[in-house]
Amino acid sequence: xxxxxxxxxxxxxxxVGACSAAAPSSSxxxxxxxPPEASGSPVPEPTGSSEPPAGAAxxxxxxxxxxxxxxxxxxxxRLPLISVYSDGRIMSEGVIPAIYxxxxxxxxxxxxxxxxxxxxxxxxxxxxxxxxxxxAYGPGPNPDAPSTVITVYHDGSQTVSTFSSLLPGQIQxxxxxxxxxxxxxxxxxxxxxxxxxxxxxxxxxxxxYVPLGFQVFAVPGAPAVSDPGVARPPVSWPLATxxxxxxxxxxxxxxxxxxxxxxxxxATTLGPILESATQITPFTSGGSQWTITVRPLLPDExxxxxx
Length: 307
Known about the structure:
Elements: H1 2-19, E1 59-66, H2 72-77, E2 82-85, E3 89-93, E4 108-112, H3 114-127, E5 135-137, E6 147-154, E7 157-163, H4 181-194, E8 207-208, E9 213-220, E10 235-236, E11 248-249, E12 258-263, H5 264-276, E13 283-285, E14 288-296
Parallel strand pairs: 5-7, 10-13
Antiparallel strand pairs: 1-2, 1-6, 2-3, 3-4, 4-8, 6-7, 9-12, 9-14, 11-12, 13-14
């Protein structure tokens, strides 16, 4: 079932796209901390350093899609394919309901294989050739298709492997794509992670991850509604900082757009409201209506709190 859920999410995201963390500064209560440096860009994957970022919560393995022909909104909310933590949690995006309007915040599903299973995953990554030198595999990047990037944190360092032809639609548990030895081994490993393999650990219950933070993009004006019959009533922005001064200016979002990260007590306040909102729910702040787009943050992406 985990494999089927994952495949449905990725195929849907690719079809939709084809058709259309820095440390935070201290903030007063109710004021979100600043987002990563690239204003308007999604939370970046942790690359370019030998250690996981501060607050990485034991991140040991991550597979992501990068690039490709995809709408800006889908790019902003795109989650990693797979994230594995040292306690054995394996996280991926849940099923996207085929309804309109869809939920505002994507669901993250989690299964556990325990610390022993996490160690088994690192061994499998090493056996697959994903813990040596950084490498690029495949015939070369296709501007219309995303690359699959696997980052493994191990022994105080990290290894980044980029695959131009290792697309999720080609991956099935127990099978490997043809081609380079590392590419084939990587596809097998991803298939095992998408399935129910415990990697020698103990399977825990499947569940849903409750985010401890959110990256929020806000644009002035109410959301576009294609069917007035399903329009949603406005919801009041609950945080002390109004959306007009929230986070920082989002130059990619247009005039007046803002982007910021909400964590800590503010995330506790905002979370239930986001959970009940849809993609066309307008938010009111400072006497105006706003359209917001939200990406839930994974454990390693939530800014560390001061204190």
